[in-house]
Amino acid sequence: MWLAKVAERQMIRPSFVPPPEIRLLRDLTRYRADLVNSRTAEKNRVEKLLEDAQIKLSVVASDIFGVSGREMMAALLAGQRDPKPLAQLARSRMRAKIPLLEEAFVGNFTDHHAFLLRTMLARIDEASADIAAVETRVEEVIAPFAHAVEQLDEITGVGLTAAHVVIAEIGIDMTRFPTAAHLCSWARFAPGVTESAGKNKGRGTTGHGNPYLARVLGEAAVAAGKTDTFLGERYRRIARRRGKKKAIVAVGRSILVIIFHLLSDPKARYHDLGSDFYDNRIGPDRKKRNHVRQLESLGFKVTLEPAA
């Protein structure tokens, strides 16, 4: 039994040797992701360093690497230690938080912290410059696939960067996948099934797939969950019943199915079904039964009377 299942799984995971232009794009998008991860790690070190100096800038500012935050850190490196002048460097909306900023800069920032901060900020700036250079190169390499990028960019939660990663990881030739389900299985976005002695033990994990593709689909699912769209409503419905992690996987799979159909037909365009899709599909009678069942589960006795 298990040998048959292994053989079946191997059959639906076709080998993928992408064409040269896709391989070039994949190298660039993966390197960009690695650079972003490296920059994020360095930013976390900066935040930890400021906390070690008892400076709670990240508590007040949502992004300490914005214009205001960078000017404040530059002033620290220049030798400014007085909280009031440092707080006055706030720009635009952050000026409303000047009293809080003055409290946040009451700390013990030493020359040792300044040396480390200067080094960390230099690494962040260097990584940012490298990311910009790689993104410029990505734009050049992705040019032949502009139509596919435009198609994917219309999907809720999927932006240009995500579209670039999707094309780099799965290509644009969907003929090697018989159905969308095969693509989801290849990408490990199909729920596993645990079975023993002919008995179904429930759904298992999806397994380990392509980490770059999984990351971008997960980010797209979370972004879609914040919108008033079909995918957003699907995310919220599943999150309420099964939790956010399962909702991310389920919506990520839905996005992957949409990607399959869009790339299979160059003329296809994404059409949102609307956040009220589920309500319109079940009809008034089923909706009424659902509401009555929910109230009865809370201990109420429900009697329905038609309105005048």
Task: Please characterize this protein's 3D structure.
The chain has 308 residues and is mostly helical. It has two domains: 2-19 and 144-264, no CATH class; 32-141, no CATH class. Helices cover 64% and strands 3% of the residues. The protein is built from 14 helices and two strands. A two-stranded antiparallel sheet has the order 1-2. Strand 1 (193-196) and strand 2 (199-203) form a beta hairpin. Helix 11 (211-224) crosses helix 13 and helix 12 (230-242) packs antiparallel against helix 13 (244-264). The longest helix has 33 residues, at 20-52. The radius of gyration is 26 Å and the shape is flat. Residues 1-14 have low confidence and may be disordered.
Number of strands: 2
Rounded radius of gyration (Å): 26 Å
Q: Supply the number of structural domains.
A: 2
Tell me the strand order in the biggest sheet: 1-2
By secondary-structure content and strand pairing, the structural class works out as: mainly alpha
**Overall shape:** flat
Describe the largest sheet: 2 strands, antiparallel
Instruction: Provide the helix percentage.
Output: 55-70%
Q: Mean pLDDT score, rounded?
A: 87
Determine the N-to-C terminus distance. Answer: 62 Å
- Weakly predicted, low-confidence segments: 1-14
Name the helix and strand elements from N-terminus to C-terminus, one letter apiece: HHHHHHHHHHEEHHHH
How many helices?
14
Strand content: under 5%
